[in-house]
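User: Can you predict the 3D structure of Lysoplasmalogenase? Sequence below.
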Amino acid sequence: MPKRALVEHRPWLLASLAAAIAFYFLRDNPIGGLWLILLKGAGVAFLAVYTLRRGHGVAALLIGLTMALSSIGDMAIELSLEAGGAAFFLSHLAAMSLYLKHPRQHTTGSQKMLAVALLLGTPLVCWMLSHNWQVTLYGLALGGMASTAWMSRFPRYRVGLGAVLFVISDWLIFSELGPVDLGDIPQYAIWPLYYGGQFLIATGVVQTLRHELAEEDG
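Assistant: Sure. Here are the predicted C-alpha cells for Lysoplasmalogenase:
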C-alpha cells in the first residue's frame, strides 16, 4: 500500500479497532450509558467511513450503507432490541443488494449446499433458540445476507467467513431470549464475533474493489 494511502486511509481502520476494543473492555465501566452507546457505534461507523473512502462506485456506497446501518443498530439495540433489529434488518438488505450484484461465476456443489444451509438453517436456529416469530423473521434476512455473501465473488474466507461470524454472534444473542442456557459464553463472545465479522466483510469487499480498480487502470 502506498505511503499516502497508509496516511490517509488506515487511520480509519485503526480508529475502528481502537473503538471496538475500548468498548469491549469498558462496557461494564460506569462511564455513562450515552458515552458507551456512542463508543459501541463508533467501531463499525469508522468501518463505514473506511469503505466509502477506499472503495469506489455503487459497491462502495452499498457496503458503506451496510456498515452505517449496522452502526445505528449497534447503538439502537442498547435502547430497544426491536429498534436495533430493524436497523440490522435494513443493513442485511443493503448487503444482499451488494452481494447479488456481484455473484461468483463458478461455484461447486458443496458451496451451493452450504449457501442453502445458511439461507434455511439460520432462521430455523433463530426459532429454536428464541421461540419468537419476530426473531425468526429477522433470521430470514440474516440467513439471506450470509448465503449471498458466501456465493458472491468477494473473498470467501474474508467476506463469507465474516458473514458466518455475524450469524453466530446473533445466535448467541438469541440464546439469551429462549430456553437455551450457554452460561457466560454470550457475554464474552458476542462482541468479538460480531465486530470481527464486520471487519472481515468491510476489508474483504474493499480489497476486491481496489484490486479491480488497479486492473482497470493498468
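The chain has one domain: 3-217. The first helix runs from residue 3 to 26.
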